[in-house]
Hints:
Blueprint: H1 4-15, H2 18-25, H3 32-38, E1 40-43, E2 46-50, E3 55-66, E4 69-79, E5 84-94, E6 100-109, E7 115-123, E8 129-137, E9 142-151, E10 165-175, E11 180-190, E12 193-204, E13 213-214, E14 218-222, E15 226-230, E16 233-238, E17 241-250, E18 256-264, E19 268-282, E20 288-305, E21 310-319, H4 324-327, E22 346-356, E23 360-371, E24 383-395, E25 401-412, E26 419-429, E27 432-433, E28 439-453, H5 455-458, E29 462-475, E30 478-480, E31 485-498, E32 538-550, E33 555-565, E34 585-592, E35 598-605, E36 612-622, E37 626-635, E38 646-656, E39 661-670, E40 675-686, E41 690-699, E42 709-718, E43 722-724
Amino acid sequence: MANWYHYAAALALAAAPSLGASAQEDGSVPDQTALAQQQVVLEADYVYELSEENSIVAEGNVEALYDGRILRADKLIYNRTTERVRATGNVVIIDTDGTQQFSDEVEVGSNLADGYAIGYSARLPDGATIVANSAIRQADGINAMDQVIYTACPICEGKGKTPTWSLRARRAVLDQESQMISYRDAVLEVMGIPVFYFPYLAHPDPSSDRRSGLMIPSAGVSSKLGAFYQQPYYWAISDSSDLTISPMVSENVNPMLELDYRKRFYSGAININTSITHEQDFDSDGVKFGDAKWRGHLYGSGRFAISPEWQWGFGVETQTDDLYDRRYDIAGQMEKRGLYQSQPRRLLSQIYAVGQGDSYYTDLSLLSLQGLRATDTDGSLPTVTPMFFGEKYWDFGSFGFASVNASTAILRRDVGQDSQRVSVGAEWSDYKILPGGFTFEPFAEVRSDYYQLDKDASGEDNVTRVVGNAGTRIAYPLVRPGKVVDIMLEPEVMAAWGTSNSNNSAIPNEDSLLFESDETLLFQANATTGYDLYDGDGKISAGLTARAVWKEGPELSATVGRRWRSRSDAAFNPASNLDGTSADWVASATADFGNPLRVDTRVRLDDDGLGLNRIDARFTTQTKRFRGTGQYYKINETVSPTGTPDEGMFLSGEVRVTERYSIVFGQLRDITENRNAQKQIGIAYEDECSRIELVYSRSELTDRTLGPSENIQVRFSLKTLGKFGSDEFD
């Protein structure tokens, strides 16, 4: 904002006639590189000398080029006596980065340390504009401006047009040493209306590194918290660490303090998010009950390199109350913070090590779970100490690929059954192309499991079993290139025979409670996803994959197939799609038309009559006037893990009504219960420098003492200043 003094002072160097002569009079050789850097190319209609004033004047279409920078003015005067340069009349300075600065008058001394500009304005590379009645540079590096206006909006599109937002201040000071800009009596105006007044406001110079300071606050009205205000403060502790301190005050409850800490090390990084408050429980209307106590949460993660092939890390998720995160709208419960990701309303803490080389992979982890669901019993969720998996594999060339693996899972509970499992196994496979274009993939696998159990719960002290499968996959890929579209078809069959009676009723099912044999597992000999259940006996799978790719257009693909078993296994329930001797038909399809539309669909059709048992369809679209995402899902009670049907729909998007105004909407519809679980609708205004939304939202979700809630919120984001408000459902 205050580089104008460099350009004007540079002209003093070029205007001084003794610059080149002094270097020759003492007999020394001038530094040609330095002279080239100091040289100014000056063009003007007239250049003349005022002898009485000892001045040189350039007048009429003055343009000076210095070190890639350009200065234009109506008139430029260099006074040899005072060694000051003054440019007047439509002064324009263009920097090498594209910054344009304007002034009615600029004057600076030859020492480059002080000067002033009258009627100053600047257009910055990011599109922002700053205007001031006057700008003064002092010798100590302090640059002061009076009657300042700053905005990132275009202000010259039409006569008298008001920018969407602007920051006005009585005075602004740029400290070049601290790289901070401070304002006195600053007012933030939106649509020409004063919104916030700040007696004092400061932020880092846009050209500076990250700096400590206040961030954009969050404020609103919640049915739980009442009116609330949260003010983050960003503390740049060092080049490799920072801390965001965010105290929140509320109408209905006591203050809450939230902290976000980040630090990078030479070998890794950590991220910590935590909060603390001293308060009673409260419901969705802000009514308190119970005793006041210290409450809070802690979410954190870290990962570090031990060597090029080995890393270790941790993830921590814990909170004092089941509903703490929902009461205070704490985000981040479903983020992945390590090797494993938690389930909805379950917190997972873990510490782990993982190694991977050219021919091996292994991981070791300790896991602890905390339940947040109403049905969770304290102590019933296990602590895993430890969980281990390791695999070593070999490439035997024409003899195929082989691997050996080992796995352990030791589960401890305060309430319920403990279990310990150790497994070792081996796998082999090969891939051949047969005459005629058929692909032939034989395979075999074997695994031995040992379980140490609680006899009071399972009836046995320990269980040992050996399971395995052997078979082959045969496919016939067909490709038909075309001028307009390429078509590919690939029928495939998998046949395998495995061990019978693989599942012992004494073995507790810990890792295969929720799984389904779908199209992604259609050609796997063992279609289970864990260790406790095993898909043995004889089985055959058959399917067809088709794909059509237009040269410059859409892409369509689909897979459909079915699985048959030699006998039924009572260990598999209907939800798994492995019960009985014939599985349901499974299929997936994708229609990709680029931005206008993409549809992904997965279905499960009943093996008797092809009735729809499950469908999950998702779409995304983006056009000039509309963008949106949607999902429709339905599951029949016969294949539902809970035994009850479930059907719903989610929609979220934006419809552009005019060039500036849009309607935003979102809805989570529970069709089974005939209610809108969540919904929001609002209006948005957006231009080159800002986005403003007025949104009404309501949630019908209930969880014990928390019930339906609604709010009306204003959200806006200002280019170069940040965002205000949240787009999360309350």
